[in-house]
Write a sequence for this structure.
C-alpha cells in the first residue's frame, strides 16, 4: 500500500504505505483504502518560506521533513514521497491561486494546510477572507482530490518586531474554527510554541531573530 500526503505552500513528496495509520478525524480504514487505490503515494503541503525551509541549517531538519521521516519510521513498510512546493511570502490568497499546480495536480491522499505570512505582518489578509480562503482550499481538495485535510496554526514572530501584527492568537483561533466548521483535524502549533516561548527567549527559537524558526524551532 501507499499514500500521498500534501502540505499547502510546500510540496513534499513521500511514497507512504499508510496501512494502519489513523488520521486525527478518520479511522485507519479511510487512509488504508486510499493507499490501496494507488500504485504510489504522496504527501503535499501548501505554505510559505518557513515550509520552504527558511533558516533550517539542513533540509532534513525542516519541520515537515521531520514529520514525514517520523511517519516513515512509524510505518516502516510504507513508501513515502514528500513534495515541497513552498513559495516564500505566500498568503492564503496566493496559496489558493497555486492550489491546482502545487497540490491538486499531485493527487494527494492527505493535505496539510498552514500559512504564516498574512497572520504575522501588518496589512495581512483580514481574518474573514483568511477563513474563506481556507474553506475554499478544503472544498477543492476534497472534491477534486478526495484527500484528507489537516489545518495547523502558526507560531508568532519575535514580539519585538515592529512590523508584526500581534494577532497570531486571533488567526490561530480562526484556523481552529475553520477546522471545526469543516470537520478537519487541527494541529495547534501556536499554543505549543507559546508554551516553549514561556521558558525561552525568542532568540532561542528563531534563526533570523524575526520570523523564521531555527533548527530547534522547526
Amino acid at each position: 500500500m501507499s499514500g500521498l500526503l500534501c502540505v499547502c505552500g510546500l510540496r513534499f513528496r513521500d511514497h507512504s504505505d499508510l496501512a494502519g495509520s489513523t488520521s486525527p478525524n478518520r479511522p485507519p480504514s479511510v487512509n488504508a483504502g486510499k493507499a490501496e487505490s494507488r500504485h504510489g503515494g504522496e504527501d503535499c503541503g501548501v505554505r510559505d518560506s518557513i515550509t520552504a525551509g527558511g533558516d533550517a541549517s539542513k533540509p532534513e531538519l525542516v519541520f515537515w521533513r521531520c514529520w514525514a521521516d517520523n511517519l516513515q519510521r512509524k510505518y516502516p513498510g510504507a513508501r513515502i514521497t514528500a513534495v515541497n512546493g513552498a513559495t516564500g511570502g505566500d498568503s492564503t490568497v496566493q496559496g489558493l491561486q497555486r492550489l491546482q499546480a502545487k497540490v491538486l495536480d499531485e493527487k494527494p491522499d492527505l493535505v496539510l494546510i498552514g500559512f504564516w505570512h498574512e497572520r504575522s505582518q501588518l496589512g495581512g489578509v483580514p481574518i474573514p477572507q483568511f477563513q474563506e480562503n481556507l474553506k475554499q482550499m478544503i472544498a477543492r481538495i476534497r472534491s477534486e482530490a478526495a484527500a484528507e485535510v489537516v489545518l495547523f496554526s502558526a507560531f508568532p514572530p519575535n514580539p519585538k518586531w515592529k512590523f508584526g501584527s500581534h494577532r497570531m492568537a486571533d488567526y490561530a483561533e480562526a484556523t481552529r474554527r475553520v477546522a471545526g466548521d469543516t470537520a478537519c483535524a487541527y494541529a495547534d502549533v501556536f499554543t505549543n510554541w507559546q508554551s516553549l516561548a514561556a521558558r525561552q527567549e525568542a532568540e532561542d527559537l528563531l534563526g533570523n531573530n524575526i520570523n523564521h524558526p531555527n533548527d530547534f524551532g522547526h
Summary: Confidence is low (pLDDT under 50) at residues 1-5, 7-41. Residues 49 and 88 are 4 Å apart (CA to CA). The first helix runs from residue 28 to 36. The beta strands are 5-7, 13-14, 43-46, 81-82, 110-113, 148-152, 185-187.
